[in-house]
Design brief:
320 residues, alpha/beta, single chain, Rossmann fold
């Protein structure tokens, strides 16, 4: 990683709006310049992560103080790509009061009785805060795309669909809905950055085996994971079309190499820091009308502290 500028690495992952997108152009196992020993590359990535965590903590404080923007970070990936661990390591220095993580599971009956964006709308971060979506509204063009039979439970009017196929125009409408939703959020002060953690099928298989073989990881594995793995090609097709259709200037997608977690964490943390800094926020300024009152408050506090120190230096009377 060290021989390439960080900006070049970020650009390598960035999906340009309006451009043709193919997952085959993004190597899940990318880990920097192979001429440099892996240990040195790892050390550089870990140092970069540590630096980014510090910068992110400072950026979050400015985000909170300015109170004009919020940040929504979306994570999508196949099972075992490392979403949870990436969130854990990248956000380790964040003030918990300024950040909220929402993990979206199978929709509830109440959620199914609303439009597909409703449950995500409820979890959006308020101004000054960071919201993390572990899965998101994109499940509706990914999982539901691979399993169109799930649409039956959504009770959509005039949906002409069978379990096997849904008209392409239906998915285009969902892409349009998502783009409109994210454009609205951006115009109203929510910056958005979206990550697809691009794990290879081989690496996913290795991680599944680890979960089965290690007692403390077994709880993470479900037989349903293998059923979804069998639909790998269908998911890759859904991801390609979704990312191409919804990577915009106001809500960009980044396809992050995920076979090596040390690479994933370093790049994701850098992109988040860059995104917050791009908002060009300023620390709140004190109105001129308040300056005189603040100066009086400062003088009062200084006087109190001075008198307190003098009192502490007064000799105690002799008990005898």
């Amino acid at each position: 990683m060290k021989t390439r500028k960080l900006e070049d690495i970020i650009e390598m992952c960035h999906v340009r709006p309006g451009k043709k997108f193919r997952l085959k152009d993004h190597d899940p196992g990318w880990e920097g310049d192979q001429s440099i020993p892996e240990e040195r590359r790892r050390q550089f990535a870990e140092a970069l992560l540590s630096e980014n965590v510090t910068e992110l903590s400072e950026a979050q404080e400015l985000l909170y103080a300015a109170d004009t923007w919020s940040l929504l970070v979306v994570f999508q990936a196949m099972d075992a790509a490392g979403k949870d661990s990436t969130i854990k390591h990248v956000l380790t220095g964040i003030n918990p009061q300024g950040c909220h993580v929402t993990s979206f599971k199978q929709p509830s009956v109440e959620e199914l009785d609303h439009n597909f964006l409703w449950r995500c709308s409820k979890a959006l971060p308020e101004r000054g805060k960071i919201g993390i979506f572990n899965r998101s509204h994109y499940e509706e063009t990914l999982v539901v795309r691979v399993h169109p039979e799930y649409l039956k439970s959504q009770q959509l009017p005039d949906l002409q669909a069978s379990d096997a196929k849904v008209k392409k125009s239906f998915w285009k409408q969902r892409f349009d809905d998502i783009n409109g939703f994210e454009s609205h959020l951006h115009r109203n002060g929510t910056a958005i950055v979206k990550f697809f953690l691009n794990v290879s099928k081989e690496e996913q298989g290795k991680r599944f085996l680890e979960r089965i073989n290690e007692r403390d990881k077994l709880w993470k594995f479900s037989l349903g994971d293998l059923q979804e793995r069998a639909r790998w090609d269908d998911y890759m097709e859904a991801y390609e079309e979704t990312i191409e259709a919804t990577s915009t200037e106001y809500a960009p997608w980044y396809v992050i190499p995920a076979d090596n977690k040390w690479v994933t964490r370093a790049i994701v943390s850098r992109v988040i820091v860059k995104t917050i800094k791009s908002l060009n926020m300023q620390w709140p300024r004190v109105p001129d009308s308040d300056r005189l009152a603040l100066e009086k408050a400062r003088e009062q506090l200084l006087a109190e502290l001075t008198n307190s120190r003098k009192g502490s230096r007064t000799p105690k009377p002799d008990a005898t």
